[in-house]
Each structure stands twice: as C-alpha cells, then as structure tokens.
Amino acid sequence: MYDLAKTESAVEQKDTKISARNVQVYYGDSHAIKDVDVDIEDKTVTAFIGPSGCGKSTFLRCLNRMNDTIDICRVKGDILLDGEDIYDPKVDPVQLRAKVGMVFQKPNPFPKSIYDNIAYGPRIHGLAKNKADLDEIVEKSLRRGAIWEEVKDRLDAPGTGLSGGQQQRLCIARAVATEPEVLLMDEPCSALDPIATAQVEELIDELRQNYSVVIVTHSMQQAARVSQKTAFFHLGNLVEYGETGQIFTNPVDPRTESYITGRIG
Ligand SMILES: Nc1ncnc2c1ncn2[C@@H]1O[C@H](COP(=O)(O)OP(=O)(O)O)[C@@H](O)[C@H]1O
Ligand SMILES: [Mg+2]
C-alpha cells in the first residue's frame, strides 16, 4: 500500500541532532502540545504526520523558536540542539534560525532577484568575504536546491517570476545558503503539482546526506516515500515514533493504526 523504498537505510543508528523533553505548548489557555519527548536524528528525514490541528506545525516551530513570533504562544520543556538548550537566554533566535532553517507550505521568495534571494542570508550572517565568495555560495546553494540549471542564465530575474515548483526549490536553496544543520519543512509540497512534488521529494532525499530534515506532511504516501523516521501526532500528543517502515506496516498504538488505515483523519 505504501512505497517504503527509502526506509531501509534507517536501520543504521544515527546521532541525535535535536532532543526534546517534556515539551508543552500553550496558545493562551489552550494546551496545544502535551508532554512531547523525541530525539530527532542527524542525516535522517523525519516525518511528522497526523490529522489536521493535531499540533504538527506547532511542534515543528518549537525547533527553531518560530513560536516566539506568536504573542500568545508559550513553550515549556527542554529542546537541545547538539546538547545545547536553544531556549537559553544567551541564544540569538536569528542565529538559531540560520542553523535550523525553515521552508514553508507556500513558496515565499523575497521580492528580489533570484541571486539576491540566495545572497540575502549569507550577507547578513557575514558568510562571504567578497563578491566572488558570494557568487560561489549562490551557485552552490542553487545546485543543492536542484534549480541551478534552470536559473543560471537569469540570476537577475525576480524570484517571484518562477513557477511554483521552482519557487519552492529556490526557497530550499535559500534555506541551505546559510549552511544550516537542520531543515524544517512544513508541508513543502502542498502547493505544488505532482511533477514539482517529485522533484522536491528527490531533493529532500539528497539533502539528508548533509542535514537532519524534518518534514510535516498530510500525505502519508509522501511520509512513506521520503522519511526514515515517522512521528504520529494526535490531539497534541506524540502517540508513536519509530522507523517509518514499522509505523506504516506494524504500528503499536491503535490510534496510529486507525490513522494509517484511514479510519481517523
Ligand atoms: N497562532 C495560533 N493561535 C492560536 N491557536 C493556534 C495557533 N496556531 C495553531 N493553533 C492551534 O493549535 C492546535 C495545533 O495547530 P497546528 O500546529 O497548526 O496543527 P497541524 O499543523 O497539525 O494542523 C490547533 O488547535 C490550532 O487551532
Ligand atoms: Mg500545520
């Protein structure tokens, strides 16, 4: 029923990149994430699945402190990146988000040229010494985003003029330009057609050579195709977390089984 081709390599044990313990998230009085513990592995694609409103995006946003930007949102518990508390007052959220990059549901290129979309982050983080350096970062990032060949002759054209699938790959290239260690993706293919989706999925599979990738998806087929680990959320709880192959073929919790088999959604 599910294509689990990319899950075999998961048998190998990877290092923990992000460790979350007793995480609670509140929007005002509403308790949106309840006591979540999870270890996200390095060089692995981890899928967050579960019914709409179960807290996937909320939990994802905890991992690079994007919830800080929502006034009524409070996050409690511990989230460590390589053993360091990302909520420590000494941590600059802007620096953190360069390390833990994010790609959103709707491609959101800046109203700038293709070149400047990529160069923006490296410029503000001082990653390039000169123009030649910056050119190199731009090319490398666009190559990693699997879009270089399509845009190399029009780097001065606006990013917003690209097709939806190209815009999303541009946004992925922009996210990798600051040399992140973790890439968070919140339903990155939901605005894309099947061809662009396949291109982005292929890219996600390549990215896991270098990064820890966490992808929220409402498509179980997509989770099965691209991830090695899967976390199933339900009503703010992390119900089950494990090897993608196991979650999809032999779930332990009856709530996971109901969701996988389409009885709850
Ligand atoms: N900015 C917000 N303000 C108030 N409540 C929110 C906000 N964002 C999400 N929520 C609530 O938190 C819960 C989880 O939402 P969300 O994380 O978006 O779920 P999912 O991504 O799984 O669909 C839902 O009940 C939702 O209504
Ligand atoms: Mg969501």
From TrEMBL:
<dbReference type="InterPro" id="IPR027417">
    <property type="entry name" value="P-loop_NTPase"/>
</dbReference>
<dbReference type="InterPro" id="IPR017871">
    <property type="entry name" value="ABC_transporter-like_CS"/>
</dbReference>
<dbReference type="Pfam" id="PF00005">
    <property type="entry name" value="ABC_tran"/>
</dbReference>
<feature type="domain" description="ABC transporter">
    <location>
        <begin position="18"/>
        <end position="260"/>
    </location>
</feature>
<dbReference type="GO" id="GO:0016853">
    <property type="term" value="F:isomerase activity"/>
</dbReference>
<keyword id="KW-0592">Phosphate transport</keyword>
<dbReference type="InterPro" id="IPR003593">
    <property type="entry name" value="AAA+_ATPase"/>
</dbReference>
<protein>
    <submittedName>
        <fullName>Phosphate ABC transporter ATP-binding protein PstB</fullName>
    </submittedName>
</protein>
<keyword id="KW-0067">ATP-binding</keyword>
<dbReference type="GO" id="GO:0005524">
    <property type="term" value="F:ATP binding"/>
</dbReference>
<keyword id="KW-0547">Nucleotide-binding</keyword>
<keyword id="KW-0813">Transport</keyword>
<dbReference type="InterPro" id="IPR005670">
    <property type="entry name" value="PstB-like"/>
</dbReference>
<dbReference type="InterPro" id="IPR003439">
    <property type="entry name" value="ABC_transporter-like_ATP-bd"/>
</dbReference>
<keyword id="KW-0413">Isomerase</keyword>
